[in-house]
Design brief:
The complex is a heterodimer of chains A (about 475) and B (about 350). Chain A is mainly β. Chain A has helices at about 1-25, 55-70, 110-115, 205-210, and strands spanning about 90-105, 125-140, 145-155, 160-170, 175-185, 220-225, 235-240, 260, 260-265, 275-285, 290-305, 310-325, 335-350, 350-355, 355-360, 360-380, 380-390, 415-425, 430-440, 450-460. Chain A is about 10% helix and about 45% strand. The chains are: A mainly beta (about 475), B alpha/beta (about 350). At the A-B interface, helix 1 and strand 10 of A face helix 1, helix 3, helix 4 and helix 8 of B.
Chain lengths: ~475, ~350
Amino acid sequence: MRRIRFFAWCLGMLALTAEGRAEDFVPAAPVPPPAATSDAASPSPTVEPVATPQDQKALEGEFAAALARDKHEPEPAPSAAPRPGAALSLLDLSFDLLGAGGGSSASEHEQQSLEAGGHDPKLRGFTIQNVELTFAGVVDPYLRGDANIVLQINPLGESTIELEEAYLTTLDLPFNLQVKAGQFFGAFGRLNATHPHTWDFVDAPVVNSRLLGGDGFRNPGAQLSWLTPLPFFTELTASVHNSQGETAASFRSTPGDVVAGRTLIDRSVRSMGDLVYLVRLRTSFDLGDEVTLVPGLSALFGPNATGLDTHSEIYGADLYMKWKPLRNDQGWPFVAWQSEGIYRRYQAAAVFDKVGLADTRKTLDDWGVYSQLVWGFARPWNFGVRYDYARGEHDAFTLAGVGYDSASDPLRDQRHRISGVLTYYPSEFSKIRLQYNFDHAQFLSAHDAHSIYAQAEILFGAHGAHKF
Amino acid sequence: MKKLSTAIVAVSLCALTWLTVDANTARAEAPLNVVASLTDFGKIAEAIGGDKVRVTTIASGVQDPHFVDPKPSYVVKLRDADLFLVNGLELEIGWVPPLIDSARNGRIKLGAPGYVDCSKNIPVIEVPTGQVTRAEGDVHPYGNPHYMTDPLNGKLVAETIAAAFSNARPADAAYFDARKKAFQRAIDEATFGKELVELVGGKKLDRLARAGELEPFLASESASGASLATKLGGWLGKMKALHGAKVVFYHKSYSYFCERFGLAVDGYVELKPGIQPGPSHLAELVTAMRRDGVKLVATHAFYDEKIAKLVADKGGAPLVTLPLNVGGSKGADDYIRFFDVVTDALTRAVGK
């Protein structure tokens, strides 16, 4: 019922905005030329309480002279030509639909683990990966607001709605500071804070979906970022977030889930230390006019729910490098190379079963990298390749004397993936894509898997800004 | 441990305060820090501001101004800017808003006096009416944003920039005003010819040209026995040979220029703004070109040269590559030389 009401509301909003847009396009009635205000605009003299007839005459004379001057010397006033009236920009609304179709040589059951990202195609056949409603607008001189509401159809065929992001951003803080608060993606690395429709591949890198969670790391919180006064771009970001829920998978996550044989408990927040803290440093250098380098370092700290005193730490390093000639045809050609390495130290509490101690307290080292190269070889075509590697700690732990079993815990498995993708952009607002993945993983019954996915995207509504 | 972190915070706060205070005291005497989105505005800002301003430009003249990456290094330029000059009319919609958002500089945010939209005084053309959708391509709802291709609009932009400078530095208002007038005079002389400007006056010529009454006026008036029409010099005089000539452009980037200099646009190489042409559209275009006797095909260096060349060859017209902004081709180093280069290229192509 609530869902239906939400939809009705969304439709209402769309209709309203559409009307507003239509009006924007109709130029308002020609604005009459502004009267020559050279005299009128000068500060008005103090009002004289009594006007003698002589004063009156003198004033009349002044006005007559002023008017006559206007008549004889009309300013060449091109600025007075008809112009559309100002359009009040209240709410930018856009709608993005991202879907994929295809399949894998791995079974559908295995595909769920093979494609662990929340927006990845997990089924043979079709997947509605991400339907995103975006709202954005300036609130007042001090704040802007952004919200993304995501609709999906999960593998069981049910529609789901998520408040993916909804946050305020300050516009005018001193000292080059900016505050963001609400529900938003943590600024960890390059990919985490971006939306699936801006990705260069159909699916998320393996390491991201494992260590930051299928939907990436995002949770209600507050962020302060500082653009330093250094002569080259250097930005320091720090944020604090809640630590529970599926969007904080490496932290308190969801009670009842199992991580490395430990069932997550319902652990409450007892102190500030039970929240998640994020820091990020991002810099950028231009190597000439055509090559830009953006390196970054990130870290996340917070509690996990395998025990009452266990913590997780995640560290990341990322590098983005882009070549684009100055003389480019609507953005083509270009070469963009993006790599991220993510490393997690996960304290797993001791675990007991009916027999007794099944495993002692361990610190699990899990890590992975991806590196992708996208080549926009001719407008409007891109070709990309990506290599993924991820491994979870499994040598160090046994459960009740039994070693790690990749089939029952595929997210700790050692994985290699090579992907190739070809994308065609009919316009700035749509794309069609074909991707091939080769996967090698122990948990797969055949050890290798071949997958092919086609993907399409449409975006309508406000013109989104390009991110770098 | 706690002491150490307190010390770090204290030291960083001191450093921050020192840097900020230092920047504020320096601001009063230092030249105005002006950042321009495009070279045209940067060059006019230099002409008006002289040594009272320091100008940095974001996009290069050879770039397509619709498609500029919002690089982090531009954020640093805008962080320190007192004034930000932009083209407006949504030309830079893909890259100026994210740069302003990231720059965290209240002086140049949208609506602040330091955010200078140079389209403010421009009579905009090709404003779409009625219902438009993106089925028409990437339309500009506020009208054609390439107004700088009319030299007379350069004078209006000079007005806007000088006003912004005087507002930021009232003490130097007279200096900016004098330099603005000199710049506007130079444009008038280059557009109409020095002699005609001396005889009639720049303001009147500007008004007549904008109203489309320049030719009848010149034909009807005479000075020292000769019709004024013979006195028309400058770019308008030079372009008389092309008056009414039919031309094909790659994109609607020269509409203001064509209106000013009397060129008749017969069609566009691209199907719709931002949409790649298909074979049927190109075939239709070439047929129309042959039928209408199109004199030349004009493109910009950043567009697909192969398609433009093919259209020109098949349609039997020479291909001319024109700059879109100052610095867009060899010799187009400032706003006046830009039109020297453009009018040279066009007259040379048709003279062949």
